C-alpha cells in the first residue's frame, strides 16, 4: 500500500509534510482535511475548525493532550478517516480520535502514531518525497 | 504515561461509486490547495480569521460556518473545500502533542 503525501507551504512560509484525507461527518458526508504528518505526535488530533464542521457527538476523553505550548481542551470523536492510496483506491481508518474544541489551539489537524505506526513513513525533503508505505510496498536504502 | 495506542481498524473501500467520489473530492481539494499556494501571501494575511477555498476562490470570515456558507453558495459543486484557521501570529511550530492519562 502506498499513500502519497506532499510538502505544502503553511501560513508562516514553512514547508511541511501533509497528507490529504477526509473525515466522515455526522450527516454521512465526507469532509476534506489536510493532516500535518508529525512522527513525534502520539495521537492523531483533529483541529477545532474541522471538528466544528463535522457535527459529531463529543465523547469525554480519558486522556489530555499536551504540547510545547501547554494543554488545551479536547474530546474524542468516533469516526472514520479516509485516504487515497495508489491507483486511486481508498483506505479507511476507523476508531476514536482526539479533537481540540478550540479552533485556535491547533491550526492544522495532526496525523499521529496511532495511524503512522501502521506504515513505514518516508519523509525526504531533498527528494521531495512524503509517503506511507504498507503491505505490498517497501523501500531500499543503497549507497552511491 | 501509557504508550498504548488506541485501536484503529483499517479497511479498504471497494464500492466503485464511493471510490470515484473519493477521488473527485481529492482532486478538487488538491486544486484548491494548489490555488492557496499560488496565492499564499494573500490567503495567509488574514490573521485570526477562518478561510475557505472553494472553486479556486477565497472566502474569509470570523467563523467556520460563515466561510462554509459562502463557499457552498458560490460553488456548490466543489466538495473539495479547503478550510483553515489562520493563526494570529506567525511563528516556528513544534507540534508533537502527547497524550497524558488524566488523574482520577
Secondary-structure blueprint:
The complex is a heterodimer of chains A (144) and B (104).
Chain A: E1 2-4, E2 6-9, E3 15-24, E4 30-37, E5 45-46, H1 48-54, E6 63-67, E7 70-72, E8 74-84, E9 90-100, E10 109-111, H2 113-116, E11 120-124, E12 129-133
Parallel strand pairs in A: 4-10, 5-9
Antiparallel strand pairs in A: 1-12, 2-3, 3-4, 3-8, 6-7, 8-9, 11-12
Chain B: E1 9-13, H1 16-38, H2 40-43, E2 50-54, E3 57-61, H3 64-74, E4 82-85, E5 98-101
Antiparallel strand pairs in B: 2-3, 2-4
Mind explaining what this structure looks like?
The complex is a heterodimer of chains A (144) and B (104). With 144 residues, chain A is mainly beta. Chain A contains 2 helices and 12 strands, in the order βββββαβββββαββ. In chain A, strands 2, 3, 4, 5, 8, 9 and 10 form a 7-stranded mixed sheet that branches. A 3-stranded antiparallel sheet of chain A has the order 1-12-11, with no helix packed on it. Chain A starts with a strand and ends in an 11-residue tail after the last strand. Chain B is globular, with a radius of gyration of 18 Å. The two termini of chain B are 14 Å apart. The longest helix of chain B is centred in the N-terminal third of the chain and has 23 residues, at 16-38. With 104 residues, chain B is an alpha+beta fold. At the A-B interface, strand 3, strand 4, helix 1, strand 6 and strand 9 of A face strand 1, helix 1, helix 3, strand 4 and strand 5 of B. Strand 9 of chain A pairs antiparallel with strand 1 (9-13) of chain B.
